[in-house]
Amino acid sequence: MAVLAVILHHAWPNWFVSGFIGADVFFVISGYLITSIILMQLEAGKFSIADFYVRRVRRIFPALVLVLFATLLFGWVVLLHGEFRQIGKHIAAGGGFVANLVFWSEAGYFDSSGTSKPLLHLWSLGVEEQFYLLWPLILWLAFKRHRNFLLIMAIIFCLSMAINVMTVESNPTAAFYSPVTRFWELMTGGIAAYLQLHRTAWTQRWRTVASVGGTALLVLGFTFVKPDVFFPGWWALLPAGGTFLIIMADAGQALNRYLLSNKAAVGIGLISYPLYLWHWPLLSYSHIIYGEKTPFQIKVALIASAFMLAYLTYRLIEVPLRQRRNHKHVVSGLGGAMLAMVLLGVLTAGGVLRERIDVHGAEIYLQALNDSAFPGPLFTPLRHQNIVFQKVSSQTKGLTVFLGDSVVQQYGPRIEQAISSDPARFNSVIFATAAGCPPILHAVKLPRFKFPLCPQATEAAYDLAGASDVDTVVIGAAWYGYFSPGNRELLFEKNASVLAFPSAQAMDASYESLRASIARLSGQGKRVFLILQPPTGPLFDPRNMYTGSRFGDIHPLPSIPNLNKQAFLEENGGVRARLIAIARHSGARIIEPLDYLCTGATCPVTDGSGIPAYTDPVHMRPAYSRKMATYLDQTMLPQEAKSRAALSTAVLSGSAR
Length: 657
Known about the structure:
alpha/beta
């Protein structure tokens, strides 16, 4: 259950949104198994700390060494210079079982760049092994000094859980990666082990209750725990508590007997460790190679490949090494192999070992892919109506709220830079945004299973924007995409009426909804800015600036055309005119990015140094946003600067008209 949930989440995160809690299920299982073994050996007088670590090496090292080597080898074939150095760093961290600490220092688990880190999943292995550096020693000392095992476990559980809860909102990345905030989950399994060994077995009635209750908690966890909640926090009690109860229910209950004990489930369990190791490098490399979206068929093939590789690893490597009688030679060989991998990682990270690929000067285009930075390091989560938004705080009392989709989120780096450089000048800013969701009340993005929270997120965003402490509201989106004649990915649902795009009725209703929302905010005395869509299109896509592939040679195109400004305006003229009219009649001020991003008759697709401005056809790169999106600075001026902002915006509105 644990490994399948994680794999499905990694392959289709919009379908299996909560699958990442499979890692929490595995923490409890691992704590249960290891604690059971140690306690039984201590009480039988057979426990040896050295022997414990020998068994850990024989269990963990074979598959891990193989996957690390394969990841490095494939990276040598397809990665660019910077990417190859990074994979070297992650191999060294994975081999040293400190991957969670390294990824903690780099970014959050759910950031967009995580998909291009083939060894990101080793964070959980780092947490586990750091726990096992201490836990055998603690149990051994407690046994020698006749201490109460259960009391020690309860103390560790409570301390770790308390730190987890106190940390998760102020520093969610630390709460996710830190071993200290995760030890309580392994301790949950340890408590289950102690209770089964030293307490009277639960009655049949209570085992049935545990089985039903554990299943219910897991169902609740897989239903309600989403990447936008503060996790682990209290939410992690659902998967951890559910796993604890199912373990305590024992093998006789229906769920355990028919679902978890059948041959298929047991077979997956046998290969679960190598399966976990193999699946993410395959999926991550596919993201690196295919860019924004890996085809569905490719993902299915990769998951099938992960199962095959896991089975072969289990049968041809793990089982033979376990059956070898000369444990000393096996352990020394595995230890040497792991040290060699760490050394290779260090040499790669240091640039001593170089990648194969020759891009003939096309690095700047390839490096632009998957380049995003939202939310940045200065953002902190802000929950409103069970939706998590992002906030950057300044030293002023003013507050600006941004509403929109990922086209607005691309401005995060600019907002972050402006506030950090002059916190006494600008408002604090909240990004009440949701990627893929138009900031239009009653608009539903299709398919629903990919964007289940769009209606709730939009309602929460407008509710937040209407708060009394908000003085400025900024609304933007991929307007020209949403209102395109060919767009069939939106519905307008209000009361019993359902209108489908691209019908004129659906578009008119959406325009009116936007107008009414803006008018309501303006009527509350707030400054409202409506940002038109920046220039977009295939010409901005870095993948259209070179030829070749990562499996061969890559060559830059001899020349890169810029976007014709007039053609872009004509193509989107109808939508643009409608938005300008809405702003004019509802009290909003128009901001036209083309006035800043275009020069004369063209909109450059690269900056002055020839570096791609965008990371895909629609979204700016962080560096470009910081440099060019200065047109947003006026939206962050406090109320006392209102007159200056009004003068500036009047000029912009005139040019837009």
